Amino acid sequence: MDRTAKADLVSTLNGVFTTNAVVVVAHYKGLTVADMQKLRAQMKQAGATVKVAKNRLASIALDGTDVASIKPLLKGPTLLAYSSDPVAAAKVAVDFAKTNDKLVILGGAMGTTALNPDGVKALATLPSLDELRGKLVGLIQAPATKIAQVVNAPAAKLARVFGAYAKKDEAA
């Protein structure tokens, strides 16, 4: 790789580290190409990305970013998983590590907060941003639905009473 390609990669990684909410670092030694493709596909489906970069270039790109706390984790064959959703990358990485023991989660960072492997696992148990939005919409809609039911209840009761009188008159 020549100097310009290295400079481009460093600037790209610096942009990744400054714009994404969470970065997870893991060792991938022993993963097959098929396993890596499967991991990349799962990450892409969740809205996250996996990148394998030279540790030296990644540590240069970390300078001046909020996630600079992951620099000591960049030793050996490491991969970087990142996403703008604070939960997506951690959730996919932890799920993949459960089924494939060759992926070892070393830690990560969420903003300025450094995460150890247990912190990444705890982050993975949280609901995703879309799930939280769905719950919030459900909470907002529930009172409106109840109000509509209460307002419509007297009218429904009145309609049933008129219907009962109508049937009584028809039967007589």
From TrEMBL:
Superkingdom in the source lineage: Bacteria
Any one Gene Ontology BP term: translation
Pfam families associated with the record: Ribosomal_L10
Coiled coil: none
GO MF entry, a single one: large ribosomal subunit rRNA binding
This protein's UniProt keywords: Ribonucleoprotein, Ribosomal protein, RNA-binding, rRNA-binding
InterPro entries from the UniProt entry: Ribosomal_uL10, Ribosomal_uL10-like_sf, Ribosomal_uL10_bac, Ribosomal_uL10_bac_type, Ribosomal_uL10_CS_bac
GO cellular component assignments: large ribosomal subunit
Function: Forms part of the ribosomal stalk, playing a central role in the interaction of the ribosome with GTP-bound translation factors.
PANTHER family: 39S RIBOSOMAL PROTEIN L10, MITOCHONDRIAL
UniProt similarity note: Belongs to the universal ribosomal protein uL10 family.
Subunit structure: Part of the ribosomal stalk of the 50S ribosomal subunit. The N-terminus interacts with L11 and the large rRNA to form the base of the stalk. The C-terminus forms an elongated spine to which L12 dimers bind in a sequential fashion forming a multimeric L10(L12)X complex.
Protein name, per record: Large ribosomal subunit protein uL10
Species this chain originates from: Methylorubrum salsuginis
